[in-house]
Design goal:
Rossmann fold; homodimer; five-stranded parallel sheet
């Protein structure tokens, strides 16, 4: 019988600044990290290449990408035909649920992380969600993360057998974007590998105008750090 | 703005006897049913054809099949290279977690149902899980279903906006297989369309020896109903 390994973690990794920093924190806390990315028909597929580079740079044990078909349900600017909004003010970004919201995305991602955790006997899942800058996403809130954790421990073999308890970590939950940039620098995340834009050019150049670009720019500015991806 | 439709339900539909009966119950309760099946690399792909026939027979509004890649994680006789166990006794079937358990499968299925519910503004999800004959599956227990429901209402836009409350229905939870057969007959489910075997022949003939076949046979016998799929 495989005994659960108390220091293995599944790290959800989009290739963006937030998930890269979340992975770096898991590594700093001593976890062996198993990274999980999703190919879900997102417009910004360059994310997946970014994720692979970030996983390697931060010493992940392995990196798996699972194909899922969120487009079957439509409903988001990130997967469907709705335009990605541009040049919105910070207050507009912070209010309401944005059209880039993908229905139940984090629930689906965490569910796959749970399957992966059960297979490799991981005791933790790390997710780079943040309730400050993305307050409009319901599945980025602490009460959602706690409810998922409770459900997860009832869903699995290890939960039933009592061999391990799964914890869901959202270490960026209460950080501002500037805090996240500082943390990433402190932990040695190669910022040039991280990718945030919702609507990049064919060569991967950030658009500079979508909500993700605007929040990233402000975060770097507030942290007093130069963004290696910014236009010169 | 779309108002939620209080009588729409997402019905998870594998094409087996249980999910077909669960769908029939949703229809009886007056729901407009949106059926959801998964192509997850299962050995028994004939399930998907069965699901399509069942959805049509029971008057579903639509039937979508989502491709997901559970094989990426291995770990089950239904998706991997482990042999499907045969000729086990009922007591052996009822004890422990079987190798046909797919890690986090119902969590993943319900998460996709949640996304679908949000898109079509459904207020209910129906799942044909059963805690009597499949007591070994952690994600078939009532406490799991309730925890998922709690999490789901924190995960979604409609939950946050308070426009609707999602309920997760598991109407077969406390029924024996014989009860399910009787209920299916009562509600007019075409039993010849339902498919239960974990390891059918190339032409779809049930093996007659896997856990699912054994439980199905016993259910039909106990209910005093002839199984149209049984060998003559």
């Amino acid at each position: 019988m495989n005994l659960p390994s108390p220091n293995r973690a599944i790290c959800l990794l989009s290739g963006g600044l937030d998930s890269a920093t979340s992975l770096a924190i898991a590594r700093q806390e001593g976890y062996e990290c198993y990274c999980l990315s999703f190919d879900y028909g997102q417009r910004h597929r360059i994310e997946l290449q970014a994720a692979a580079r970030v996983a390697e740079q931060l010493g992940a044990i392995e990196h798996r990408t699972v194909q899922i078909d969120l487009r079957a349900f439509g409903g988001s600017a990130l997967t469907g035909d709705i335009d990605v909004p541009k040049q919105r003010s910070e207050s507009a970004i912070g209010s309401g649920i944005p059209v880039t919201y993908v229905p139940a995305r984090n629930t689906i991602f965490l569910s796959f992380a749970l399957a992966y955790a059960e297979v490799v006997q991981a005791s933790a899942v790390f997710i780079g969600v943040n309730a400050i800058d993305y307050s409009g996403y319901p599945d980025c809130r602490p009460e959602f993360i706690r409810a998922f954790e409770t459900m997860a421990n009832l869903a699995t073999k290890t939960g039933v057998e009592g061999t391990t308890h799964l914890t869901v970590h959202a270490p960026l939950m209460k950080l501002t974007k500037a805090d996240i940039v500082r943390k990433a620098v402190e932990l040695g995340v190669e910022l040039r590998f991280t990718h945030s834009c919702y609507d990049p050019g064919a060569d991967g150049t950030p658009c500079g105008a979508c909500d993700a670009c605007i929040l990233r720019q402000k975060g770097f500015e507030d942290a007093g750090v130069a963004d290696p991806l910014a236009a010169p």
